[in-house]
Amino acid sequence: MTLLANPIPCWLIPLLVGAICAFLGYLLGTSKKSNNNTLNDKIAKLEADLATCSKSKSTLQTNLDICTKNALNLETSLKTAKANISSSLTNNAADNIVPFNPADAKAAFGKKVKQDDLKVVEGIGPKIEGLFHNFGIKTWKSLSEASIEKCQEVLKSGGDRYKIHKPGTWPKQALLAYEGKWKELKEWQDKLDGGK
After folding, report:
1. CB of 120 within 8 A of CB of 109?
2. Helix, strand, coil shares, percent, the chain, to 5
3. Minimal CA–CA distance to 180: which of 129, 151, 141?
4. Is 46 helix (H, G, I), strand (E, B) or coil?
5. Is the pTM value of this prediction over 0.90?
6. C-alpha distances in Å from residue 34, one per residue of 25, 28, 29, 45, 67
7. Residue 171 in contact with residue 122, Cβ under 8 Å?
8. Please, what's the largest Cα pairwise distance for the chain?
9. What's the angle, vertex CA 157, arms to CA 156 and CA 163, rounded to 5?
């Protein structure tokens, strides 16, 4: 009890409060520096990751450009090869062509047939023939050289009502007409159902 009985001098209280505040300020300041250092470390790590990603992106873009260039080169080579094969086939087929003989065509079909009349092909009528003419396919020879995909493209250009048509045999039928194989063409068409 003697301690409490002695009064604390007035000058000691501000001194104690100042010392306590200084200690707390020191603790808070060091903890903020530690947080700043941690944040700076995280920022540096994220910037390094970003630089790595940018480098990877650049490498991938370079690889993509190379692949695109290779694909274009392959596509060009493929087109050239197709053209060479087509021309060699055309040259070989030219030796086997019989000139158009309307009498033979009439004998096989029982009606007059005009040269390069695409309607001779089972499944092609006047409107579809017009669609082919719009695409520059006006002869049996050009139809025989057209792919089935090209025939589908021609039909699509006419709208939805032509979706039901199946041009799978049209180039082969046109080839028979071009080669003057009328009897063979007629027999085949008798077996077909609307060109299918």
Report:
1. yes
2. 75, 0, 25
3. 141
4. helix
5. no
6. 14, 10, 9, 17, 49
7. no
8. 145
9. 25
Supply 70's token pair.
């290779």
- Torsion angle, alpha carbons of 72, 73, 78, 81, to 10: 150
CA distance 164 to 5: 113
pLDDT digit string (tens) for 53-79?
899 999 999 999 999 999 999 998 898
Residue 111: partners with Cβ closer than 8 Å, 6 or more residues away: none
Residue located via tokens 């707390």: 24
Q: Which of 130, 146, 135, 149 is nearest to 178 (CA)?
A: 146
Intervals of the chain under pLDDT 70: 1-6, 31-36, 90-98, 193-196
Overall size of the chain counted in residues: 196
Distance CA 86, CA 71 (A): 22
- Find the Cα–Cα–Cα–Cα dihedral 127, 129, 135, 136, rounded to 10°: -140
Whole-angstrom distance, CA of residue 189 vs CA of residue 169? 10
